[in-house]
Amino acid sequence: MATPRGLGSLLLLLLLPLLLLPTLGQEKTTEQPRNPCLGSNNIDKYDILNLNDKASCFTKCNQSGSNSCNVENLQRYWLNFEAHLVKEGLTEKVNMTFLKALVQNLSTNTAEDLYFSLKPSQIPRQVMKDENKPPDRVRLPKSFFRSLPGNRSEVRLAITILDIGSGTLFKGPQLGLGDGSGVLNNHLVGLSVGQMRVTKLAEPLEIVFSHQRPPPNMTLTCVFWDATKGPTGDWASEGCSTKVAPEGTVCCCDHLTFFALLLRPTLDQSTVHILTRISQAGCGVSMIFLAFTIILYAVLRLSRQRFKSEDAPKIHVALGGSLFLLNLAFLVNVGSGSKGSDAACWVRGAVFHYFLLCAFTWMGLEAFHLYLLAIRVFNTYFGHYFLKLSLVGWGLPALMVISTGSANSYGLYTIRDRENRTSLELCWFREGTAMYTLYTTVHGYFLITFLFGMVVLALVAWKIFTLSGATAVKERGQNWKKVLTILGLSSLLGVTWGLAIFTPLGLSTIYIFALFNSLQGVFICCWFTILYLPSQSTTVSSSTARLDQAHSASQE
């Protein structure tokens, strides 16, 4: 017979699963799926499982899914990998699809340069004397070991080739702009010696990246990953020089870290010089015609009583004035280059940015006014109409420039050629994180105003060509007048700026954009003259002028 104590123990064993069931169920429901791309777990674990998990983030972490990735932690994980490799007792070779690494003990008392192969599909290896030098390689000069800190007879060298894929890791602000920039073949080369920081070498080491001829208008630049730049790090070129050789590009750097070859858009020195001269000539001619437009407006305003109350010519002149000041700021900026103090360069960049935004804004306001004239037509009364437009046209750009300037985004901007030589320097946005502000306040803002203008222009063109059926017989053979009207309106809405969209197609489109865009002031002057000179009252612009007058009368 079982004792009472034995029965109690047996009952407890039977009830134990039932007592634990709610707790186990609760743990199961609260367990969260593991996400290796957050980088918070196993940040210092480099076993095969964790390496594969972290490597999957090279493709998972992209622009659309960046919220599920901690880019800073993941980059730190791979930057610390070499320090992990050089510890004593670790494996000397790593061979994975995304990672090739060699760890080797070397004597510091060497009498010759050392070469190592960097073929991406193979583990790095030392190249012997009698071997041909591989196309992808690193050269450590014999003086390298003597310049290392400390008195060591032997050091532990780690060489890593890392495939970072097409995601956002190790891209930084410079490569996140969607302009075709990227890391050549998505390969990084890491070099480290022991656990020491090696900088300012008397004789730089050499890394050779083999590649085919780069695409037109693209340049290759030797860079290293600087974890101290920006919130998550960025590529930098200080201490590295770029040499173009027949077999590839040679990077000469005076320190050890992770290196890469960046492919970025550029223009060669002669092309930049020609484009600059075309733009300067075009801007100068435009300024003359814009000045004539402003003078003509003043004369007409004094000679015509009705002209004072019309809003359309005021808007045209405001656009012309903003373009005149933009062209002037451009000529001063290009002519000054990098001359003067940093503060003076900051001011020139801010002034140029301001008048550029003013021009974009007034083009958008031209489209808005045209929409009221030709599309909406009725219920278009706005009290103090032109005053409100002026507050937007001159005030909104001022707010954007103040916001940009408070972030210290203005500074010296450099355009380099394929040999990494300076082609042009002007005061604009600083390179690096300020490029995000450039793409937001310039490219993005222009795109919004341009698309709005094109929609309005398309509606007006449709109205001109399709809703004139009643007078089609009378106006037969007069389609050229309608075409000229659309061309005149196009100059006000900044259609020539839209040519910038086609510049990636080749050098010829860049020349076309530089020529026609710099002559926008000439086109506006011609349109203004045809539209408002008394002798042109019966021309193609008469209908547009009547619309302007009718709208102005509705404001009174």
From TrEMBL:
GO terms for cellular component: plasma membrane. The keyword Zinc does not apply. Its main location: membrane. One of its GO terms (biological process) is regulation of cell migration. Pfam families: 7tm_2 (PF00002), GPS (PF01825). The chain crosses the membrane at residues 284-303, 315-332, 352-373, 385-403, 442-462, 483-503, 509-533. Heterodimer of 2 chains generated by proteolytic processing; the large extracellular N-terminal fragment and the membrane-bound C-terminal fragment predominantly remain associated and non-covalently linked. Interacts with PRTN3; this interaction induces the activation of PAR2. Interacts with GNAO1 (when palmitoylated). GO terms for molecular function: G protein-coupled receptor activity. InterPro entries: GAIN_B, GAIN_dom_sf, GPCR_2-like_7TM, GPCR_2_secretin-like, GPR1/GPR3/GPR5, GPS. It is a multi-pass membrane protein. This is Adhesion G protein-coupled receptor G3. Residues 1-25 form the signal peptide. The gene is ADGRG3.
